[in-house]
Amino acid sequence: MSGSNPNQDDVGKRSLPSWMNKDDTSVKKPAGVGGSEESSERERSKQVKGHNSKRGSGANDMETNKKSSATSSGTGKFSKLLEGVVFVLSGFVNPERGILRSQALEMGAEFRPDWNSGCTLLVCAFSNTPKFRQVQADCGTIVSKEWISECHSQKKLVDIESYLMHAGKPWRRSSVAPETSAELKESPPRRFQKKDGGSHSKATTSAVSKNRDSNRAKTHLSPSKVKNWAIDDLDNTISWLESQEEKPEPSEIKKIAVEGVLTCLQDAIDALEQKQEVGKIIEEWKFVPRVVKELAKLEGMGDNDSSISNEDLYKQAMECKRAYEKEFGSLEDDDSTEKKKKPKTNEQKRGERGTGYESDETIEMTPEEIDLAYNAKSYETKQYKKGLKAADSILKKFPDHGETLSMKGLTLNCMDRKSEAYELVRQGLKNDLKSHVCWHVYGLLYRSDREYREAIKCYRNALRIDPDNIEILRDLSLLQAQMRDLAGFVQTRQQLLSLKSNHRMNWIGFAVAHHLNSNALKAVEILEAYEGTLEDDFPPENERCEHGEMLLYKISLLEESGSIERALEELRKKEPKIVDKLGVKEQEASLLVKLGRFEEGATLFRVLLSMNPDNYGYYEGLHKCVGLYSENGQYSPDQIEQLDSLYNSLRQQYNWSSAVKRIPLDFLQGDRFREEADNYIKPLLTKGVPSLFTDLSPLYDHPGKADILEELIIELEHAVRTTGQFPGRSEKEPPSTLMWTLFLLAQHYDRRGQYEIALSKIDEAIEHTPTAIDLYSGKSRILKHAGDLAAAAALADEARCMDLADRYINSECVKRMLQADQVTLAERTAVLFTKDGDQHTNLHDMQCMWYELESGESYFRQSDLGRALKKFLAVEKHYADITEDQFDFHSYCLRKMTLRTYVEMLKFQDRLHSHPYFHKAAVGAIRCYIKLYDSPPKSTTEEDDEMSKLAPSQKKKMRQKLRKAEARAKKEAEVKNEESNANNVSKTGKRNVKPVDPDPHGEKLLQVEDPLSEATKYLKLLQKNSPNSLETHLLSFEVNVRKQKILLAFQAVKQLLRLNAEHPDTHRCLIKFFHKVDSMPTPVTDAEKLISSVLEAERPTISGLHEKSLIEANKIFLEKHKDSLMHRAAAAELLYTLQPDKKAEAVKLIEEATNNPVPRNGALGPIGEWTLEDCVRVHKLLETVLPDHDAASRWKEQCAKYFPYSTYLGGRLSSAMPNSVYNQSNNSENGNHLVAGKTADSSLALNGKLEAFKDLTI
Q: TPR repeat positions in this chain (predicted)?
């Protein structure tokens, strides 16, 4: 069904499935569509003429002489073949447009970018386009592109009659060569006339002429032709549907194609019945069957000659419909349909019917066998059963045919029968090592298993056999982009461009390859070369977005390469061709700032602010333009005054904007800050915005602003409570204002660590409005910060029950339950918002990483290392999937021209593993492996004891037997799993049931032979992607000390000193490392001596140890940080490590620490420096590292006074107390007892916190 007007929207199209209506001009038009069916008609007529010429009659000889004379007259000088032709091109895209233009110019024609009175010929790709109708109305002549190509290829003037799409005025000027004029006179009469009877001459109206035209019209829809058209239309419609991005299922595609063809034909019949033009039907449909086009031609012929009445045309249309229905009804299913014969190629299946087969020998196949060989590729349409059937039918006759074996293996791979697939592909490759198909399929198998390096090797082997295979080169380039083999990517893209330079995607891919290879200027040159192949009127309407994106990408390349002035000039020059006008303005503003043209930049940023006054980036750009930008947020008094004046004017202009009111709070100080904060907070309290505190939270990091906010909120609370209105206002506030003010005040006290006051305020708010869900969630957070995790979970569950349809509140409740180690209850709550079926698998499929991290932490606290590892490694698997997901975008983005976003996506993928979630998962996994190394499972220890009793040779044999038995069991499990999958495969080859997790509790993960080697894998990722994290190098120190990798451990110590030399954990690692080095025996081997010499040379360079002993360095550190609890605890621990006899002195150092109040301006009560997490860590230190239970109990009692809600410390107000309303001493869901000192004692060892390392001893 033919291409539609590209300028038309889809309004008015038929409401058929989206794949029937989708107008994707980037998809290549299938054969037989538009002008191509005329080409196929010509091919049949040529065959008939060739057959008749063998008769050798005199008439034929005379006709041959005429043709030869006409040919000789048309084979004049090649450069003057089309002299006098002034042509216009319509409906073509580059490079095809440029090729046609060049061919016509070589033959002497003149080109015009648009149609005017001086033009003589329109070369058109499709009918019914706006240009087609314009020229048709102007009585111009329209011809298909094949005429230009035929004239150019045959080096002579080919008869134009059979290529005409519309006949009108002469297609060349009158001043043509005499021989050409004679040829024109001999041309047969025009076939098509203008529908509205324009100014061009009409055909004669004699009876003979009418009868001739009438007979020609009636024979035009002969039954034989209609039958052929029906078959062609069905095949072409199926091909077109398969080429769409959104296509139907393979089993439904034929049915939909038949329905579409008959529906379009019925629309034409309805139009004839209602005496409407059939041509309108062609405009409405995006893919038109041949018979409808022919009816439209006959209708146009009838309008001119009056030889075909509308009634006769309607009858013929009805006969055509019956013929189509009959032909479609007689067709069999896809498996038995007679297919078109395909020519043999060098890629046909090779083999031999018997023994002595040589791989280089060619198999002679029948056409039917060739058909089956092609059908083996039905895996592309996911018809796996059909593909297997076709492959098996070939292998019955040619059992050693390598390519068929490979294709069968590829099909089995798609059905998750991987072991069979690899076996068949390897067998096929063995039988035909010189087949690029076999190597290509082998590479596809590796690619499906993410073995990209092996896949690249296979592709390279295939290219040695067929170096110019575009499909293999394209696949290779995708893998090179995936693996960041940038040099190879550039080379492959260059080869693709040289092989197919008329493909836009190859130009763009070559440019992107150079850009990724840090050669932006070369990428610009390639894009400019590509632009040189385009016409002046490019792009057409349907390609404006893609072309505009390419231009913006080119400008970004110029900016990246430092050619700022050139980039700005190019941007302004190409602005009319860029659709993204907002992107143009943002790019121009950025370039102006970089060029220092601040006045122009300020003007442009003000224009952008008028479009979106809530975009913080525009305000930042305006700051730069007016000279008031500061990276650290520090401003002088003069700058503050200028900024205040600027925002006063902006506030008057955009008084509805939230950003213009919020940004001044970041730089204002003192009374001006209080005034603007007051104006900002009051409307939001009246409106009732729960996220107000989250918005104000960054201000608490500014000195003094937290105190001002506290005074302001207290004043507002007092005024609303006593008068019902804000200070300075006469209008009364709604009752909810007091509730939201109390909520804000409670969050404020929670942030400052005053949990008792915070809880009293939130309780008052709940009493005021018991139905506000946000109050319960807020109280849950306060209790969590106060240390009562069980009560926090209970409050979160209460909030969840108030609105069971709120997914966010449900997720927050699950998080609180996991923090309280109520894992079973948390799982049951989490799956409420998953699909039916295997709900826990759904959580994994949804990549719910926060849940897996919190669950893993809970299992780690409960010492369930198997399940903890399972959760942490699941997060790592998600990031592997995210990396894999980028593969499909390597071709998609080049095709859709989303180049800037594509490059940003690749840069994001390169830093993907620096994301906080991956960091937490990797840290959790490493901690599990360290703990597994320190405390291996009992079964492993017992086996080691039995093995130690054996002789060395027996040990080796025993290990080999165990490995073989393990491999055999693994293979049997895979076969069993594949059989289970095969039984659950539908007819299309899709699995109905997902495989069952063979290790749901992570027990197999605990059976790892070398936990530290597994930990090293994730440690390397952290060192690469999180090098500035203190936690990364703390883990590196712990792992390498256990592995006896002294230099690597020292490297970790140096990194810690670089990041924060005064951190207590840095000091702890430094002293412990050199204490271990000093206690090592005298070096004997060369390697040991080398290590010792390196450490002796490096030790004096460390300032803390220069000319000092370890004991002296520890004393100096203590004296320097005597007021810090954690520094005193570190010094006490190291004192006990260096001098075990001074344990009492070490304990005394900790007990003498004082909780000094934090200096502040307010007077609402002191806030101590100690945090709950610090107190818990020190208590664990006293219990384990400095084993003094009496001191630990005293410390616990002392800290409980500061944190009365802590269940770990046994606070008097915590839920651990018997009289607490939140007491949950018997948790039947998990079998845990959340009492002080039990499960909850580890609840605060959150992932990403350094306290987790205190349990790790060297």
A: 436-469
Q: Average of pLDDT values for 603-625?
A: 95
Nearest CA to 280 out of 294, 267, 262, 298 is that of 267
Residue 1035's nearest CA partner among 1008, 1017, 1062 is 1017
The token duo for 561 is 């390469």
Transcribe 404-424 into DSSP letters: HHHHHHHHHHHTT-HHHHHHH
Contacts of 344 (CB under 8 A, 6+ apart): 365, 370
Give the pLDDT band of residue 1229 (cuts 50, 70, 90).
very low
Query: Rounded distance, CA 558 to CA 566, Å?
Result: 7
Can you tell me the distance from the alpha carbon of 524 to that of 155, in angstroms, rounded to the nearest whole number?
A: 38
Class of domain 76-166: alpha beta
For 1109, residues 6+ apart whose C-beta sits below 8 A from its C-beta are none
Residue-range domain boundaries for the chain: 76-166, 233-330, 367-467, 847-938+1004-1023, 1171-1222
Token digits of residue 752: 């400052």
Q: How big is the chain by its Cα radius of gyration, in Å?
A: 40
Q: Maximum CA pair distance of the chain?
A: 130
Structure tokens at 111: 């080109």
Exposure string of 533-562, with b = 16+ CB inside 10 Å and e = fewer, is bbbeebbbeebebbbbbbbbbbbbbbbbbe
Element containing residue 689 per DSSP (H, E): none
Whether a cis peptide bond, with omega within 30° of 0, leads into 467 is: no
Contact present, 1172 and 1245 (Cβ < 8 Å): no
The upper half-sphere exposure of residue 554, i.e. CA atoms within 13 Å in the direction of its Cβ, equals: 26
Q: Dihedral of the CA atoms 245, 248, 251, 253 (nearest 10)? A: -90
Q: How far apart are CA 399 and CA 1218, in angstroms?
A: 79
Q: Using CA atoms, how far apart are residues 333 and 921, in angstroms rounded to an integer? A: 53
Sheet holding 86-90, edge to edge: 110-111, 86-90, 121-124, 141-144, 164-166
Per-residue pLDDT of 190-244, as tens digits, reads 333 333 333 333 333 343 344 444 444 455 677 777 877 888 888 888 877 777 7
Fold match, 76-166 / 367-467 = no
Q: What does the angle CA 97 – CA 101 – CA 105 come to, to the nearest 5 degrees? A: 175
Q: Which amino acid is at 129?
A: T
Which CATH fold would you assign to the domain 847-938+1004-1023?
1.25.40
Q: Which residues contact 26 (CB under 8 A, 6 or more apart)?
A: 895
Q: Give Cα separations from 43 to 146, 147, 167, 350 (angstroms).
A: 13, 14, 22, 33
SS3 string, 211-233, reads HHHHHHHHHHCCHHHHHHHHHHH
Considering the domain 367-467 in this protein, what is its CATH number?
1.25.40.10
Residue length of the chain: 1258
pLDDT tens profile 1098-1153: 888 888 787 788 999 999 999 998 889 999 999 999 999 999 999 999 999 998 88
Q: Which helix (H) or strand (E) holds 832?
A: none
* Helix or strand (DSSP H, E) at 168: none
Per-residue pLDDT tens over the stretch 55-67: 344 444 434 444 4
Q: Cα dihedral angle (255, 260, 262, 265), rounded to 10 degrees?
A: -170
Q: How far is the C-alpha of 1147 from the C-alpha of 1143, rounded, in Å?
A: 6
| pLDDT at 364 (0 to 100) | 54
